[in-house]
Amino acid sequence: MDAFLLQILNGLDKGSAYALIALGLTLIFGTLGVVNFAHGALFMIGAFCAVTVQRILNLSFETLDLTQKDFLGNPLKIKTPYIESWFGQDIGAAIIDWSVPLAILFAIPIMVLIGFVMERGLIKHFYKREHADQILVTFGLAIVLQEVVKYFFGANPIQTPEPSALRGSVDLGMMIGFQVNEIVYPIWRLVYFFFSVTIIAGIFAFLQFTTFGMVVRAGMADRETVGLLGINIDRRFTIMFGVASAVAGLAGVMYGPLNPPNYHMGMDFLVLSFVVVVVGGMGSLPGAVLAGFMLGILESFASTTWATTTIPGINQIIIYLVAIIILLTRPRGLMGRKGVMED
Q: GO molecular-function annotation terms (predicted)?
């Protein structure tokens, strides 16, 4: 039972990233009808927002410590972060320690701005083009963004550690009646899961309970009719593109401590995320979230020693096998709508 619960937790952890990225993809497709292959790059840029904040907070100046000498008898050079000189050593060190969560404040406006620029500068010209054209141009944009990040940050992964207070593991088993150390799980993975659930719930609440969200949902169902009512639905859809970009960016910011950011991490998640979207049903927000967590859990169980020993490589193909089975039995996906990408 403890091994089973651990695999469920691992699956929810993986599924959180899948669901967040797939949610953003579905928001863009559901509102604008654009198949955005650059969405994985937005996830990557979010992760490098955390890297940027970490580097900014660690900017330092050198001073000579006359009380300490090196082996040649010269005073030692001491590096002091500017943030510590401005706010004091304790507060400055705490700010640096919490650089990843603080990067959320930096990433939101940056990702929204990038989303606006992408949509207004490039993607709006492909609304009425074939989906194949949209895929080619957004995939090309993803490669360009990937190479830009590689140029500025290098090809090697960059560590973005979580706050020291959230390192280590917590004994979840004791909380639900198991023996000590039977179900021990990393704290940051739990943080990432709850963070993802909060973002997902916030997006659904925004679309369900706000006037803006209700208009967007109406526009997703019948764009022309909403436009005839005198509502500038295009402007609202542009805003939703920015929101979707921010969702992908936030997923990347918080994922950094789990997997050090590198320039190709967006591509690593892109294909899997599109599989999630297709399995959940193109244009279906609940379907994207459901499929994300479901496939994450399946991948987790397929990665166990028993599964990989019984069927070598099953952990690499399980998501695609499930996608094939679901699409053969339900061509529109789990919660897909009639008429979406069927013309």
A: transmembrane transporter activity
